[in-house]
């Protein structure tokens, strides 16, 4: 019964936490018995069971309960199979979604060597716009996960493709994550490549794309500031925050925050 398998998946994380706390008594129980079940249910025929398996996997990764060897030898190969070009459409959409969500929880080396090549392929998936949209919506997180060098070498060309996609929802998603992408690049790439790209979005034929770009204008401008003097930084959740100099915390924070808000509001009202 699918309901039984779904219920089982919901119990896996608390059992894993218990085993982690009792590791001297159960040194290999999780790796030998529970992890294989989670991996198997990622390919279950029932979508509710797969969803429960995906949620359980993310919780386990977030709690750092999955060994690096299991991630590389069991989890990643399954996701790569499910996201392959000839994979079933429903499985592929689910796989790319889980790849994007788990990227921030894995080591940079694992993401760059095992998942990044497939992510780049999926950005150009001509069959399913849903796959490209998931890639566009999570592009900033992937850039943050792999760092500046891989972003500029492999991801920026894909970002250009998505920003000119024929589906306006893709371009809108790119506009919404533009600040996070810009923050990961060097000042030269930001100035010479991303600025003209942003202008194309802010001049887009679709109103919703333009609106999203105008709302990202202030945050994008903020990435040109020197973090050490302006105090701007990106939180783990991808949002822009301000850490002003200690001697002028209140005045600088309010002024800079107001400036960014005014720039965005002014541009949006045009």
TrEMBL record:
UniProtKB keywords: Repeat
Coiled coil spans: none
SUPFAM superfamilies reported for this sequence: ARM repeat
GN (gene name): Ppp4r1_0
Positions of HEAT repeats: 115-154
GO terms under cellular component: cytoplasm
Gene Ontology molecular functions: protein phosphatase regulator activity
InterPro entries the record matches: ARM-like, ARM-type_fold, HEAT, HEAT_type_2, PP2A_Regulatory_Subunit_A
Domain of life: Eukaryota
Protein name per the record: PP4R1 phosphatase
Any Pfam family hit: HEAT
């Amino acid at each position: 019964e699918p309901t039984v398998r779904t219920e089982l998946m919901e119990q896996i994380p608390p059992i894993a936490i218990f085993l982690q706390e009792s590791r001297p008594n159960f040194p290999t129980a999780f790796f030998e018995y529970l992890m294989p079940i989670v991996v198997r249910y990622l390919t279950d025929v029932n979508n509710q069971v797969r969803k429960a398996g995906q949620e359980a996997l993310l919780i386990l990764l977030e709690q750092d309960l999955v060994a690096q060897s299991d991630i590389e030898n069991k989890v990643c190969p399954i996701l790569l199979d499910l996201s392959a070009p000839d994979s079933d459409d429903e499985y592929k959409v689910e796989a790319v979604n889980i790849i994007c969500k788990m990227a921030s929880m894995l080591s940079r080396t694992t993401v760059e060597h095992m998942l990044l090549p497939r992510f780049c392929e999926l950005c150009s998936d001509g069959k399913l716009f849903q796959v490209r949209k998931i890639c566009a919506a999570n592009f900033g997180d992937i850039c943050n996960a792999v760092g500046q060098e891989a972003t500029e070498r492999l991801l920026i060309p894909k970002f250009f493709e998505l920003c000119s996609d024929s589906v306006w929802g893709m371009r809108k998603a790119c506009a919404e994550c533009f600040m996070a992408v810009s923050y990961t690049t060097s000042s030269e790439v930001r100035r010479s490549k991303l600025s003209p790209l942003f202008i194309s979005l802010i001049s887009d034929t679709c109103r919703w794309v333009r609106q999203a770009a105008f709302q990202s204008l202030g945050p994008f401008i903020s990435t040109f500031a020197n973090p050490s003097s302006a105090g701007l930084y990106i939180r783990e959740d991808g949002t822009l925050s301000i850490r002003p100099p200690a001697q002028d915390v209140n005045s600088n924070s309010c002024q800079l925050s107001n400036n960014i808000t005014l720039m965005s509001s002014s541009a949006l009202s045009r």
